[in-house]
Write a structure and sequence with these properties.
2 copies of one chain form a homodimer. With 459 residues, chain A is of the alpha+beta class. Chain A has helices at residues 2-12, 14-25, 37-53, 126-143, 165-171, 173-176, 229-240, 261-269, 274-279, 294-299, 340-352, 379-392, 406-413, 440-458; strands spanning 56-61, 68-73, 82-87, 107-111, 114-118, 150-155, 180-183, 195-200, 202-211, 217-218, 303-312, 321-322, 325-334, 360-369, 372-373, 397-401, 419-422, 437-439. In chain A, helix 1 (2-12) crosses helix 4 (126-143), helix 1 runs antiparallel to helix 14 (440-458) and helix 4 (126-143) packs across helix 14 (440-458). The interface between A and B is large, with 98 and 98 residues. Strand 11 of chain A pairs antiparallel with strand 11 of chain B.
Chain lengths: 459, 459
């Protein structure tokens, strides 16, 4: 049987697949820092070369930011056209000193009996996107062509809120339109249980800079009458959350809605190990909104988190200064029908209403995207679930994700396409953190799963 | 008359005095950053060479931190021995980009019709200490000796809370004991009016580090149940001040006391230009405790200021991370009989009482010293006031200072010596801030004033 040969080819060539992934992981394609722009370009070029060698018509496509990679299969069976999406950019590796090995020198290590690929981007998203590339490679090697027509789209700005994505889709609508999108940037339920993600939180990224006096002041000579920008910013941040853990910004919960009782029952039945989950990150009790299941908090409730703060003297020792400026990066996770623009506007009004005399605030937007709920009636979902069950020997869980994948909204709203969110990450992958890893079994079974899914979609 | 010749010598040699000050200002003797230790040592060596050339028995004296400079006059008239104190260390020059010219390349510039020496340390304290050195130089040049026996003590850790000072005084008590101390690290009332400072605030320097999760987390995947160290720290900082501007830490106001009505009347009569004072720093309204005169807020009321804060991602763009750690540098200005150790302990208890589940706090002490009120009955004060009035043509104001000069407490408590706090800084000197300056007239009249004071003390 053809599929069996394809799966056997994936297994037989696993070492060489890993070598290719390591080559991609060695490129520090950090999209949030402009000084790494050339590395992002290098990652895009590398992917084009790889896809070209597989018989794709592949090219680097410029944007105002980091480039896109677009590739179309030249030879494929009949059947629905799929658009596969991934991103080649990665988060900054800071804090560097907490990495056990350098973030851009990938290694295969064994931990708790599991072989793991350790590097920045191993799981998010280079390891994941390469599962699909390796599945395609196996099909081409065994069959000479892909079972269904495939378009591949890799972007380089996912970690910065995908500013170029919507313009690019708008400008290339016809070329990119497919029958269904495949998106590989999500997790499994656990190391043995596959999952399809059907709910995604939205994201609003804001930066606020509070300015008080015209310059930093000596805290002895001016301490008392001089306003302190850190105090002002701290008070604003402190007031964002009420004692019940809810976000106190007026209008914030508009459009949130309560969870469907059936979904709630399903999630409760998953017997999620809250204690182990929190224990893995050094915690014992869930913070945030009181009285809600931890999966609901992560998948179906909105949040506000300060992602960074800086002001005044932060070097060695002490400096008796009253800082004139202090700034914070603040992000919101959205659910349901929350309107990103309204969330941003309400946040800014909330800050401005709390500025004392002589203080002003500037705001910088780093992106915004709404939440998404994907329809469970997609004709492609059943085939995907069956393919995953065949690979893992157990049914796929239908779950939510607290993270944001802006492209899924664009696929839906701009191209009229549903997305199948299938990924092989695990919740201990430490994405965005030091020592990010991707299980070798995720990589292997991921590639095998995509081979099965492509074959199933061709039926 | 001998004094007239000394004053004439100061004026005649002003350009060469400036050259010497510039040489000292070129040494980046930043005491708060260990990587500048060699520069601190170089500043100490430079001073020893200068004082040796003036006939002092001068030496660099090691401590556990930056060294002391001690110098004794070899030839002097009879009369009280004076101990002159200054510090050769300076604050870090950050933020560098706000300096119009490099901080360690001193320049003489003209602004608003005033010639100004611009450099880090120009006013705090290199320019000030050199006024005394130049006064001594003129006496030696004209008279061949000083009018009274002089010991000079320069330290290199004033900006870090003077950790080595007390051990050094304890170990060299006999050598350093004098009849009165002269301390030159304070301001004039204004550019035309000299001042003697008789009240000094104390200082407690703390650093607090809040730790939540074991590592930074993805704000999408973990946002909701994961505690955010920035939120916890922001809430603590926000709660330190009540809506009335008072510090809400229990026990904080123990020992503060109300201002003597006579002093209050004197300060009110000074017709302090609050509007101009605040306008110079970009403000219009005094912050802090409501209902108190601005001079009282700065000189006679305690404060708490966050001097720095940092946590999470603070680079370019955004990073959707829930930070595991956040830290702040916090300083307290003390007055009256406030106990520094009690203030520190109460602050730490205040923070600990506000830590939610799974959070802990570490504390680092960067120093502590009590407030000081100097007796107005010192037999040397009248002579000093008369000397200042002769130089400036108007009486000296007796004022307070919001800053801390720990040595004054040590002189009082360890050596049983009163200190005469006479300085020639101005409130627009931007000490601890970018573009620090010292008026050329402060430098010249400062040197002339010290010549007059030394002559008066010999009477």
């Amino acid at each position: 049987m053809a599929l069996d040969n394809v799966l056997a080819s994936i297994d037989a060539n696993l070492d060489r697949s890993l070598e290719r992934l390591f080559a991609l992981l060695r490129i520090p394609s950090v999209s949030t820092d402009p000084s790494f722009a050339a590395e992002c370009r290098r990652a895009a070029d590398w992917l084009v070369t790889e896809l070209g060698a597989l018989g794709f018509d592949a090219s680097v496509r410029p944007t105002r930011g980091h480039p896109m990679v677009v590739a179309h299969s030249r030879e494929a069976g009949a059947g629905p056209r799929v658009l596969f999406y991934g991103h080649y950019d990665v988060q900054p590796p800071v804090p560097l000193e907490q990495w056990k090995t350098p973030p851009f020198e990938p290694r295969l290590v064994e931990e708790n009996g599991r072989k793991q690929i350790v590097a920045r981007g191993a799981a998010d998203d280079k390891g994941q996107l390469m599962t699909f590339v390796e599945a395609c490679r196996a099909f081409v090697a065994v069959e000479g062509k892909l079972p269904v027509p495939v378009t591949i789209l890799f972007e380089g700005e996912e970690e910065t809120g995908s500013p170029s994505l919507k313009p690019f889709l708008d400008a290339n609508r016809k070329e990119l339109k497919a029958d269904v999108a495949l998106v590989c940037d999500t997790d499994m339920w656990d190391a043995e249980t596959p999952a399809v993600t059907t709910m995604l939180r939205g994201l609003v990224l804001e930066e606020v800079i509070v300015q008080g006096a015209s310059h930093d002041l000596h805290s002895g000579l001016f301490g008392g009458p001089a306003v302190n920008a850190i105090h002002v910013l701290a008070r604003v941040l402190a007031e964002i959350h009420g004692p019940d853990g809810r976000v106190a910004i007026p209008g914030f919960y508009e459009g949130v809605g309560e969870l469907d009782p059936e979904i709630r029952a399903q999630w409760t039945s998953l017997k999620f190990d809250e204690r182990r989950f929190l224990g893995d990150i050094g915690l014992t009790k869930p913070a945030g909104e009181a009285g809600r299941h931890i999966l609901e908090l992560m998948w179906a409730r909105p949040t506000c988190d300060a992602n960074g703060i800086i002001g005044g003297y932060t070097g060695e020792g002490s400096k008796t200064v009253i800082p004139a400026r202090a700034s914070a990066k603040v992000s919101f996770r959205l659910v349901g029908d929350q309107n990103p623009a309204a969330v941003r506007d309400n946040f800014r009004a909330f800050v401005r209403a709390r500025l004392p005399a002589d203080c002003k605030a500037e705001f910088i937007s780093h992106g915004a995207s709404p939440a998404l709920r994907l329809p469970l009636t997609s004709p492609y979902l059943a085939k995907t679930r069956a393919a995953l069950e065949a690979e893992f020997g157990r049914p796929a869980v239908l779950k939510g994700s607290g993270g944001s994948i802006p492209i899924v909204g664009s696929f839906k709203h701009d191209l009229g396409m549903d997305s199948l969110l299938v990924g092989f990450g695990l919740d201990d992958d430490r994405i965005h953190s030091p020592n990010e890893k991707y299980d070798l079994s995720s990589f292997r079974k991921g590639a095998r799963s995509w081979a099965r899914i492509l074959a199933a979609l061709a039926q």
